[in-house]
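subagent[fold] <- orchestrator: predict structure for attached chain, return tokens only, no commentary.
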Amino acid sequence: MSTGAAYWVEKLRLLKHVEGGYYREIYRSPVMVNKDNLPKGFRGNRNVCTAIYFLLEKTQFSAFHRIASDEIWHFYSGDALRIYEIQTDGTLTQHNLGKNAETGQRFQTVIKAGNWFASHVTNPEGYCLAGCTVSPGFDFEDFEIAEPKALIQQFPQYAELINRFSR
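subagent[fold] -> orchestrator:
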């Protein structure tokens, strides 16, 4: 039995994602947090937590974007995923999500709320099946795809990386 990208897209009923790759929401907490109890920037009430499957294959990438919540990434299957995170102070961190601890890969990593991030599979012939858990829960109102020129103005030292992982 093959468990490549096509298998997981079909088996998990994944849909194309606006940022790139495939996804499907698998959990949305029924418990809500009132907007008044959330940090500044949230436009409404939010579920306590949400979770998705996320898959990138071959040369697909997840374009630079940011959300208003912390996002915990979990490795499930396939090849390593590199996640580039640009913090608000301009620090660039490269997270390697995968199963090979000897090369610095980790099963989980956290992207902090408000930071810009993008990702790609390190093997251009492979795929990565991951999961993302967001708290307070994800809402497209809190999602922003980067406008490359504006992001480069803010972080000119990363112009090449931003151009590579933008749409």
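orchestrator: received. Logging for downstream: The chain is about 10% helix and 45% strand. The chain has one domain: 5-164.
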